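> call design_seq(struct)
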């Protein structure tokens, strides 16, 4: 089994006194998710998250919450890994980051087909994986003070 690490963040901003979250739709899987990507050898987790958020959303100005770090661990065992001859133990590190600058301006269209800001309930509906929904819920509680 091979271990892979990706890093990203729950990116949010406050709109009409409520948080809205940035979701990206992948070209490869055609599903909504949180901005994240593969960690490069010379990077820290936070550096990877900053780079990937910029590549996938165009957002540069972020304020990270130093008290929030969640890790999602799962096994990838599908047709692709079967062809490779091994399974992948995937670790995804999520931070919480407030967008303090511009809206989504541009992104890597070879990876991301669409992006949008959505409220908490819509984000939970659009996210496919249970673990992503749970991490989003933890972030929402952190932002809103547990409400």
């Amino acid at each position: 089994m091979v271990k892979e690490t990706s890093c990203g963040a729950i990116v949010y901003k406050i709109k009409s006194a409520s948080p809205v979250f940035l979701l990206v739709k992948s070209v490869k899987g055609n599903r909504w998710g949180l901005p994240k990507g593969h960690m490069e050898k010379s990077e820290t987790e936070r550096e990877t998250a900053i780079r990937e958020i910029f590549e996938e959303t165009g957002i540069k100005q972020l304020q990270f919450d130093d008290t929030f770090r969640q890790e999602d661990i799962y096994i990838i065992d599908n047709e692709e890994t079967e062809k490779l001859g091994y399974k992948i133990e995937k670790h995804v590190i999520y931070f919480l980051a407030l967008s303090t600058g511009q809206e989504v301006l541009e992104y890597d269209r070879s990876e991301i087909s669409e992006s949008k800001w959505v409220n908490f309930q819509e984000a939970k509906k659009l996210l496919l994986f249970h673990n992503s929904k749970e991490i989003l819920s933890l972030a929402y509680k952190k932002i809103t003070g547990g409400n």
